[in-house]
Design brief:
The complex is a heterodimer. Chain A is α+β, with helices and mostly antiparallel strands. Chain A has nine helices and 21 strands. In chain A, α1 (7-21) packs across α2. The mean pLDDT of chain A is 95. Chain B is globular and about 70 Å long. By secondary structure, chain B is α+β, with helices and mostly antiparallel strands. The longest helix of chain B is centred in the first third of the chain and has 22 residues, at 67-88. Chain B contains nine helices and 24 strands. Chain B has helices at residues 67-88, 115-132, 194-197, 205-219, 235-247, 252-256, 319-325, 358-363, 413-416; strands at residues 16-32, 35-53, 56-62, 103-105, 138-154, 159-177, 180-191, 227-233, 276-279, 282-283, 286-287, 304-308, 311-312, 333-334, 343-344, 348-351, 367-378, 384-396, 399-403, 407-412, 422-423, 428-437, 439-447, 450-457. Classes of the chains: A alpha+beta, B alpha+beta. Chains A and B meet through β2, β3, α2, β5 and β6 of A and β2, β3, α1, α2 and β7 of B. β2 (44-62) of chain A pairs parallel with β3 of chain B, so a sheet runs across the interface.
């Protein structure tokens, strides 16, 4: 388990093996990750887990045919055999001119975060959190909490001459909990974040403490009366799901290649409320734990996805871009940041006549046309500008595109998840139904 | 390839220890609108060790599996357990034991097909769809395979080996309906290598035709009306009902974490028509979709009868939860990759068949829905579940009416199950499921058609 591995040498040797096997173009990636993890289960610290893994990825292009292999071995014989197999797979495939690799780029190296975990601080912080939760929220059970440190080194090279190396170390924490009051239980809820250090108490990461407090209020819930079309204030914890729906239905490779995206011809035109701006910022500054290069071998560059309601970029990769003739996403599409608005959260609540504070969405995958429906979990009824009570067995339905067009306010306040930053968003026109 | 003579490492165990050498091999071929957009294979192999001391665990894994790496792995897992025990030890080091020693290799005995053969199979299906249904706005066909091969040794004497393959073909079709894309998919295959699950591509043509016909119904469909409705859940949905609505709620680790099922043991939680079993490996004389003979803690796996004629009778256990509840372990500890620790996981969770006929069940509904296919689902500590429905029909006056657009259905399981009034006399398994719970892992789900009242999330 030596850590003295020259990953750049491995990917370069892999390229040589792929070309020797008959590849016309080739790409190779290698990563080595170490993880140190402490787990809390059912309120008790239960597991100390340390793992090591490596991954070698080989992609062979024969003319415009493509084949890919991944394995977690990197000795010379494994590389040679995998290269022959990748080329054989490519030869078995069909021509597709959209298959390609990124252009030449001199070696760039990136490094961020600590190289080794502070084991003592990890234990101390988690112990502190378990104690805090037990004292502050005695009826709340920590179903599972995971604090881990991950340190990875990754290397990329292709036969055009593009090369990258990256080292990244960060801590991640997630807490999942439920509150019991006699025989009554709240819905589980969870939050978490990733950061480069452990300077802050875990209860203050993302919305962990706020959601634990809310959990204590949610052991007695009732459904709403009847069905109505109303407003929803989507919390930062929930907004991430809806951002991923936007990506999947409207702007990513699959929906654009198939042509089913309702926004396929909307680049440069309004697609959402002008109050909404979504950026992809893998290089920060709003993102603490980002990334430096994309999976298809490009330097990751920050870019707007939707700016003041205007669609500025799809999240297409190289293949999707070549296939559709639409521009590749310079950022790779990750590290989402939604700009803060100018409305205080409390003013958003005051502006709602009847609707929900939507804290968690448990729903089916949206349809290709953007229709969604699901259960409003850990959520609250808002009436006449006041948060009235937590709700249960309450369902919502709507259309993702329409929802974002009907955004009426974006909060000043935001929650920082380390790899994403989201505000509260108020939108109307959602179908809300009780039992 | 089987890792032999794993027993020679037993001398390195310092505490109660589990040692697992594992390889997962995967392959995927995806064709989207005629283009091969995915042509990949992968392998992840290595070793893990897990040690137990004073009520806490230490775990370590390595991608190397030579003797040196295995020794280092066992040493690190032991050190991790001892460190955590020194600061957090809170219990006994004794765990229940029922060592399994199964050797099961479910590999095909047929000659393996080449990558070219598999690509030709997928392209044949794609060509059939394109020729027969040229009006579709998109079509995708993907083939995926996963082999999970494990050799495991435990300090209490289990020494087991398994190779469980799974192969699936997923087909998704999209049609334009008045300017909006409407899609529907289906998945075929299950346990076993591709050569055992699939023959000539033409054998799937009738299933593709049925999928296309249902898609045409859905394209002309209506939105479901929100509210609590009488519904018939087809066996496909009964399987996910068994998994999401009940199964997760009675996983013993989640019971300890706050699930409401903690208060319901030996109480009536469902109609007496409902009997729910998490099968270990064999159900009604046939091997299950995800068979487990010896679990990843070395326990000889047994069926867990969770609900017997409406009464909650058991949770699903690993060694540790069984010890805490003072019961026998059920053999539900499973890990996905070599780098994963075993968790309490479902295996093959199914509602048992009843006596009703599906046609009679539909005829008994005056105003409701017949739901046939699900997408994703989610459980909750309250037993409130939801799952997405991607194919269904209205029922009016006991007859099927218009198809409905995608919707979500939900309910509180231990309330909703008491509304079950009919259970069909047939049963089918879904063998394509992946369950997410820290790790994602294959599961089997099954059941008959069920008549119940359930919340439908539609358009007001």
């Amino acid at each position: 388990m030596s850590i003295d591995i020259d990953g750049m040498d491995i990917v370069r040797r892999t390229l040589v093996a792929l070309e020797a096997a008959g590849a016309d173009k080739a790409a190779a990636s290698f990563s080595r990750g170490e993880q140190s993890e402490l787990n809390v289960d059912a309120g008790r610290m239960s597991l100390y887990r340390t793992t090591v893994n490596v991954s070698l990825g080989l992609t062979a292009h024969v003319e415009t045919r493509k084949g890919s292999i991944s394995l977690n071995k990197y000795d010379d014989e494994s590389i040679r055999v995998a290269a022959i197999e990748a080329v054989s797979m490519a030869r078995s495939s069909e021509p597709d001119p959209a298959n390609d690799i990124s252009p030449a780029r001199p070696l760039e190296s990136f490094s961020a975060g600590p190289e080794l975990p502070d084991d003592a601080a990890m234990y101390s912080r988690l112990k502190e959190f378990v104690g805090y939760a037990a004292e502050r929220y005695p009826d709340t059970r920590l179903e599972q909490c995971i604090l881990d440190f991950g340190q990875g080194r990754s290397y990329y090279a292709n036969s055009n001459g593009a090369e990258f190396t990256e080292r990244s170390g960060s801590y991640s924490f997630s807490a999942m909990f439920t509150t019991k009051d006699g025989t009554k239980a709240s819905s589980f809820n969870y939050s978490g974040a990733s950061h480069r250090n452990l300077d802050t108490a875990l209860k203050d990461w993302a919305s962990v403490d706020a959601l634990m407090k809310q959990s204590t209020e949610q052991t007695s819930v009732g459904s709403i009366e009847g069905n109505f079309s109303g407003d929803v204030i989507i919390t930062p914890d929930c907004l991430g799901d809806f951002i991923s729906f936007i990506d999947g239905v409207y702007i990513s490779d699959y929906s654009l290649i198939t042509g089913t995206s309702p926004w396929k011809d909307k680049l440069g035109t309004p697609v959402t409320s002008p109050l909404f701006t979504l950026r992809s910022q893998p290089n920060g500054p709003g993102i603490e734990v980002g990334y430096s290069y994309t999976g298809d071998g490009f330097r990751a560059e920050n870019c707007p996805i939707i700016e003041a309601g205007i669609l500025r970029n799809f999240t297409l990769g190289l293949y999707g871009s070549n296939k559709t003739g639409k521009p590749r996403c310079p950022s790779g599409g990750g590290a989402p940041v939604v700009d803060a608005g100018d409305t205080p959260f409390q003013d958003m609540v005051k502006s709602v006549k009847r609707g929900l504070l939507l804290a968690r969405f448990s729903g089916g995958s949206p349809s290709d046309n953007g229709d969604f429906s699901g259960v409003a979990k850990n959520s609250y009824l808002i009436e006449n500008g006041t948060i009235v009570r937590p709700v249960g067995e309450t369902m919502i339905a709507g259309n993702i595109g329409k929802l974002f067009r009907e955004i009426r306010a974006v909060s000043r306040e935001r929650v920082d998840y380390g790899s994403a930053v989201f505000p509260w968003v108020l939108a109307g026109g959602v179908s809300i139904s009780g039992k | 390839m089987r890792y032999t003579d794993i027993r020679r490492h037993a001398g390195l165990f310092g505490e109660y220890t589990e040692l697992r050498v594992q390889e997962n091999r995967s392959a995927r071929i995806s064709v989207l609108n005629g283009d091969i957009v995915g042509n990949a294979s992968g392998s992840q192999s290595g070793v893990s060790a897990r040690a137990f001391k004073d009520g806490v665990w230490g775990f370590a894994s390595s991608p190397e599996s030579d003797d040196t790496a295995i020794g280092a792995c066992i040493g690190r897992a032991t050190a991790n357990a001892r460190f955590l025990a020194s600061v957090e030890g809170h219990g006994s080091s004794v765990l229940p034991s029922r060592p399994g020693s199964s050797v099961r290799d479910l590999s095909t005995a047929k000659p393996r097909l080449s990558r070219k053969d598999l690509i030709d199979f997928v392209r044949d299906l794609d060509a059939y769809i394109n020729n027969r249904y040229p009006h579709l706005v998109s079509r995708s066909v993907s083939l995926s395979q996963l082999d999970m091969e494990k050799s495991a040794l435990t300090a209490d004497g289990s020494d087991a080996y398994s190779l469980i393959p799974r192969s699936l073909v997923a087909i998704s079709l999209t049609v334009d309906a008045k300017g909006e894309p409407i899609d529907l998919y289906d998945v075929f295959g299950g346990r076993g290598h591709f050569e055992d699950n699939f023959g000539e591509p033409s054998l799937l043509y009738p299933a593709i035709d049925a999928l296309a016909e249902r898609l045409s119904h859905k394209a002309g469909g209506v939105y479901a009306r929100p509210g609590t409705r009488d519904v018939i859940l087809d066996p496909d949905l009964a399987g996910i009902l068994a998994h999401e609505a009940i199964g997760h709620t009675v996983e013993a680790d989640l019971v300890l974490g706050g699930s409401v099922a903690a208060d319901y043991m030996n109480k009536t939680v469902a109609s007496p028509l409902i009997t729910l079993v998490d099968f270990a490996n064999t159900a009604m004389g046939a091997t299950c979709p995800v068979p487990v003979w010896t679990d990843d803690e070395g326990i000889e796996a047994r069926d867990a009868v969770l609900i017997d004629q409406g009464v909650l009778r058991s949770y699903m256990h690993n060694k540790e939860t069984a010890a805490r509840f003072g019961v026998e372990p059920t053999g539900n500890a499973r890990a996905f990759g070599f780098y994963d620790e075993p968790l309490v996981r479902m295996r093959n969770t199914a509602i048992l068949p009843g006596v009703s006929k599906l046609t009679d069940m539909i005829a008994s509904v005056d105003d409701g829905y017949y739901f046939l296919r699900s997408s994703n689902g989610q459980a909750d500590s309250t037993s409130e579940f939801m799952f997405g429905v991607v194919m269904g029909y209205e029922i009016k006056g006991g007859k099927l009416g218009s198809a409905v657009h995608d919707c979500t259905i939900s309910g509180v399981a231990f309330d909703m199950l008491k509304t079950v009034t009919m259970v069909s006399d047939d049963m089918s398994w879904t063998a394509a499921g992946m369950c997410g719970k820290k790790q994602s892992i294959p599961v089997g789900m099954g059941g008959p058609a069920v008549k119940c009242r359930i919340n439908v999330g539609g358009r007001a």
